[in-house]
Design the sequence.
């Protein structure tokens, strides 16, 4: 069985709100899209976020308060 992220694949879209100011968050994509050849040198927490499993971690941005938020999206089984 294949596991996919419903947000990455455009199957699920929901408005998310900033935990700091309540503004609308903008989805900037899956966290794994931001990793390059230097991934062995990244923090342990980031490595855990990218490890896969049952969740896909997305980076959201709040244009109002200029904060980044990581949200875990549950993967779907096809």
Sequence:
């Amino acid at each position: 069985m294949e596991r996919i992220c419903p947000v990455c694949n455009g199957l699920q879209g929901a408005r998310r709100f900033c935990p700091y100011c309540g503004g609308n968050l903008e989805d900037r994509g899956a966290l794994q899209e931001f990793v390059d050849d230097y991934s062995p040198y990244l923090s342990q927490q980031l490595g855990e976020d990218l490890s896969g499993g049952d969740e896909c971690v997305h980076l959201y941005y709040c244009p109002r308060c200029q904060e980044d938020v990581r949200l875990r999206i549950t993967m779907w089984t096809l």
Summary: Residues 3-77 form one domain.
